[in-house]
Batch of 3 targets.
Target 1
Amino acid sequence: MRRWFGSTKNIAGCLGGLIGLVLYAVGVIGPLWLMFVVMAVLYTAGALVAPPEKVRLVVDPAVEAAQVRSALEALLQTVAGHSGRLPPSAVDGVRHVAEVLSDLLKDPLRLAATPDLQYRVLLLARTDLPLSVETYLNLPRWFASRRDAGGTSAEDELAKQLDLLRGKAEKLAAEYYAADVNRQEDHTRYLGEDC
């Protein structure tokens, strides 16, 4: 219902109704009851003639990046709040991955220019990193440090996951900044040619 009030159809209908009110005010329409009928007809005509709202399925990259960066900040606050439960290396690992991803999200239009890279950055930021931390924090404390028959614990698994996530984040950053690195290398070659 709220979307209707700001829609183009409602605005066009209101303009039609306003025309009916102006026609009554200048004396074109006689009795008051006729004014209401004319306003209703003009409102309906305006609403029917107005174009429908455009469908918007694609999210604005700037809005999406801001939401994801906010979610990363919330994740870091959650990690800081549970730092007693997480191994210190895990806290540092989450912070590092979140910083790399947040940096990649600073220029959302540049990131959106490479949809595959954008998808992988968003997947890492929205799903992979939070899922690793969430899964570990949802385990009972006594169970997280317990070693299984193979000698590994949930802490070990979290450390492995964070190492993999760090590698993925750094690989994405290398891909994101590849053009800048190439530009810098080209400039170095250019400067070396004159010597």
Note: The mean pLDDT is 88.
Target 2
Amino acid sequence: MRLRAAFGRAGITARKHEGDGATPAGLLRLVRVLYRADRLKPPACSVPLEPIGPHDGWCDDASHPAYNKPVRLPCAARHEALWREDHVYDVIGVLDWNLAPAARGRGSAIFFHVATPDYAPTAGCVALALPDMLAALEAGLSAIMVPVPA
């Protein structure tokens, strides 16, 4: 399945590091899906599914023990809030980039999420329009192939 997607503002890289704004190249497996239950019904998918709430975040502080892991807010470490006013994180596919174990500085919070209406570049994630994302999940999406740059 080929769909229009937004990638990192710095393009795609084979040498991902924290804060570079690039999407890592390679096969990124879908580990689980998080969603805003106040905005959407649970999406059909083939991986574990969990609702998120206002106190959910993701640590992107390479010096913290929770680096590239979910955290509860407030959190003293640098993090991303998953509960956002925009709709970008209404559905979040957690991809297996740098998860087990997380190598400090190799990149964090590489998600599959909802694209902005204009497909603006992401901070390193892969983003699709919500209808495309939901259709891909329902079709059994288990991984995303991000091509190695030429």
Note: The two ends are 21 Å apart (CA to CA).
Target 3
Amino acid sequence: MTTVLIIVGVVVLAAIAGWLLLRGRATGGAGLKRRFGPEYDRVLARHQGDAKLAEQELEERVKRHGSIGGQPLSAEARERYTARWTRVQERFVDAPEDAVAEAGDLLDELSRERGFPEAGSAEERAEALSVHHATRVDAYRRVHAARDGSGGTEELRQTLVEAHGLFDALLGKRTAEPAERGRTTDMRKQHHAKGSVTS
């Protein structure tokens, strides 16, 4: 009698585990869509609409980078990074391309200090960042893509504004300070005052 009860218990547990596994697979895509947002659509497009391949790639990213906890920054480090970002914004007025390139370097350095792994390419780092900053990772790609100097001033300004959002997220800020947000508007005003035009 005891043996029968044990067998029945094992069968019931196996059935429950199977049901949970199937349920997890059924909702896995929806969970990945919620987690990755626009990054999900980007990966899906790269796999020519094959949701299974796209979700396998995203699940692999979570396995590789999901445990990154974000190394804490000291108050001194936060002040140092904030001061450097301010200099990037100020430099934009006279040298937009150089400022955006410097912003890319700064994001690389800050992400490494926060615990993201060394990467062989900007895209490898973008994949790691996408696990934790999916809604902002495109700004990282745009900053690095802008290094070729093909964008106009207004496009570069917008790229820097978006990169600022990722910078704040990596720094641990929820939103930019009003004074910081005002600086991006000032960049545009100063450019117009100097007679700069968007190419």
Note: The chain has two domains: 2-65, 75-194.
